[in-house]
């Protein structure tokens, strides 16, 4: 669907593409691992599946899944990266083809999954433009509980209030995807009174001072970046318990 709106400053009409699937490709009460076509090791995929056992592939991620010995529950995308060899191994009812080119395969898949939490793997460490598009999509849909896993780090868009399980000395980096203000407890350098912006002040390399960090934000758009070692059932449970932006 394409929405046309006028720029409030110059009055120029702008086309904004919004992908709105009618029904989800997968609706489940279990957490979902979403696999992209980027670099991913079996160790990271298996770690994600231990917390999110349902596997969905975004387009070319299907070939990655098969190569690593996993059959995805479904494959979502425009299929421009899904080779015929991989496609032939997947039952047609598992293939959800969305041909429009106004959204990325990550966005298509994200919007087609109804699940408590999504763990995204295979979306980092390859093309920078593709990786940035993933983060931009997360910022546009802040109520989606989606955690992106990389080789070293994980990241997600912060809910309005979030209690983060930590140990003293854990890195808690904050990177604003827009203009954001908030408050914190349990950080070595509190964030209250700071106006964050991607072209201004950012909060990378902050440090937890105790066993919990509480973050509160006035508007959506703050990305929380942590060590991948902090992934666990406690972190996922607290994400699920956090309020939506609504």
Automatic annotation (TrEMBL):
Single GO MF descriptor: thiamine diphosphokinase activity
Leading EC class: transferase
Superkingdom field: Bacteria
Pfam families, alphabetized: TPK_B1_binding, TPK_catalytic
InterPro entries hit by this protein: Thi_PPkinase, Thiamin_PyroPKinase_B1-bd, TPK, TPK_B1-bd_sf, TPK_catalytic, TPK_catalytic_sf
EC number: 2.7.6.2
Domain Thiamin pyrophosphokinase thiamin-binding span(s) in chain numbering: 150-223
Entry keywords, A to Z: ATP-binding, Kinase, Nucleotide-binding, Transferase
GO terms of biological process kind: thiamine diphosphate biosynthetic process; thiamine metabolic process
Presence of the UniProt keyword Kinase in the record: yes
Alphabetized PANTHER family for the sequence: THIAMINE PYROPHOSPHOKINASE
Stated name of the protein: Thiamine diphosphokinase
């Amino acid at each position: 669907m394409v929405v046309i709106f006028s720029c409030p400053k110059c009055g120029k009409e702008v086309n904004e593409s919004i992908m709105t699937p009618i029904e989800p490709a997968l609706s489940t009460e279990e957490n979902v691992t979403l696999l992209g076509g980027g670099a991913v090791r079996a160790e990271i995929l298996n770690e994600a599946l231990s917390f999110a056992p349902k596997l969905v592939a975004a387009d070319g991620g299907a070939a990655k899944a098969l190569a690593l010995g996993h059959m995805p529950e479904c494959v979502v995308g425009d299929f421009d990266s899904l080779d015929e060899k991989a496609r032939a191994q997947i039952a047609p009812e598992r293939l959800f083809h969305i041909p429009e080119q106004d959204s990325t395969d990550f966005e298509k898949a994200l919007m087609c999954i109804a699940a408590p939490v999504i763990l995204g793997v295979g979306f980092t460490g390859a093309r920078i433009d593709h990786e940035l598009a993933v983060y931009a999509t997360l910022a546009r849909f802040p109520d989606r509980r989606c955690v992106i896993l990389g080789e070293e780090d994980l990241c997600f868009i912060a809910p309005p209030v979030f209690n983060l399980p930590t140990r003293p000395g854990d890195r808690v980096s904050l990177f604003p995807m827009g203009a954001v203000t908030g408050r914190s407890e349990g950080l070595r350098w509190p964030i209250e009174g700071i106006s964050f912006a991607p072209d201004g002040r950012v909060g990378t390399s902050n440090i937890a001072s105790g066993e919990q960090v509480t973050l509160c934000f006035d508007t959506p758009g703050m990305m929380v970046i942590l060590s991948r070692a902090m992934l666990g059932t406690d972190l996922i449970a607290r994400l699920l318990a956090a309020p939506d932006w609504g």
